[in-house]
Amino acid sequence: MRRSTTVYLYELAWILPSIAIPVGMLAALAVTALGAGIHLPGRDGRIDPTQVAQTPPFDEPGLVQVAPGRFEVRMTAQVWSFAPNEIRVPVGSTVTFVATSKDVVHGLLIPKANVNVMLLPGQIARATARFDRPGEYPMFCHEYCGIAHHVMWGKVIVETYP
Ligand SMILES: [Cu+2]
Description:
The protein is an alpha+beta fold. It has one helix and ten strands. It is elongated, with a radius of gyration of 23 Å.
């Protein structure tokens, strides 16, 4: 191969990826924003952070069955607890966590169920998980929220009914 052709191929090997990578990233951005509807939190889904305890559905935190096999947990996070902090569902349930914080930034992490959301004061966060295996699924606050952050945890108990 002539030397000039080799140089040309080297240049091409850099130029093509430097065009293809940004184009690919832009395409991924368009697909997630327009197709999957992933976006920054907007004004909808926001409530007054000083009135969380008086605002439905957070005035009555707890587990609600919305359909056969489907549940919704209305949850509040506050220093240093979740309400409710123990949730019992039958195995095979799909659970949507609807949660917000009453005070500072908290987090909700359920490692065994792949739930990981930030709980911002007054911003309603949603995460859905399916619990296919019986057992205990610990849930943690994973945003440092003060002196007793390490005791802020709870659990989802997935039960098998005979
Ligand atoms: Cu916390």
